[in-house]
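Consider the following input, taken from an annotated entry for F-box protein At5g25290 (Raphanus sativus).
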Amino acid sequence: MTISSSLKRPAGSTWEESKADNPQFSRSPGLMLFPRDGDCVLYDPKEDNFKRNVGDDFSGCRFLANSGNWLLVLDSRSDLYIEDVFSGKKMPLPSLESVKSADCIVKRVGDREFIRDESGAIYEDLIADVVRGLLWVSESGKEYVVVWLFDLPGHSYMSFCKNGDTHYTDIPLFFDDRAFHKFDGLSDMVLRGHRLYVSTSRRFVRIFDLSGPQGFFKDITGHQTPFPMLSRHDFAYDSSIAVTTSGEVLLVESDQRYSTWFRLYKRDPDVEDPNNACHTVTEVDSLGGEALLLDLGFTVPANKALGIESDSIYFTRHFRPCQCSSRQLDICVYNLATKSLHRYHNLLDTMDLVDARWFLPRN
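Applying the prediction step yields:
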């Protein structure tokens, strides 16, 4: 195998071909690297080894999300599929226009253009470049959930499907009832198993259970008091949400200008009236023996043997925002305890990357 000129191996590292029967990749946090030439390269920081993916050429593709070894891909024809980056196994998904809804029709008008008709209201300029997605795949690889939307201001729905589904089901993002307007819109979302966590435009957190039969979902936010995640610096910095292993929702703030720090917040239990409070969260300086994979939006238990450092934030962009252009690629690990940042200059300086994502390899 030849190495293309756009993909340079950092000094001191080794190349190996990824094989389904012997991936030879540790279970420590790894990186999926996407060079501009359409390749996919797997990097194991613990072993300092690189492996090429055995799957397809990804030229013209967009990488929307990842879960374990699996990657959610939107190809050059605007078709969605998921692929195991070690084995190359691919599972096709329903087409983007396969949305079953009582008041909506999605039509394809080209390889990368779509029109959405919502009860006579026509939304045009829906192109593949604004599709955003989430992915969860079970340890066995037999179950999955895919969530996607056209990520434009005022978008009214997001859609999801699970293994076995023949179409997508819409989840509304806006309400006709004024009493529920605080739940309108979308600022961020995290998928963990069959639970979808959504931060609304006003930073209220909604939780959906997607585990039901095809065409059904359940908003399970109602069993608790609706709560916005508002810091004293809200809207001054990049902010997103993350979910801990216990299901607690955290607010994550980062510095969009200098890219040198993060702040974490949890719900402030002393706030009695969150609907009228200016700030509703309290800052925390520890993840309680866990590490945050910001690309995925959730925490995992720290494990020294696997190189998962406690109170660390693994990220490739400080923020993967809605409704605006992506932040600059910046492959790092940030330590909350020491306020220090380890940046992977060897990858950023020597590889012509268009994207990268942290992942946790599975057997």
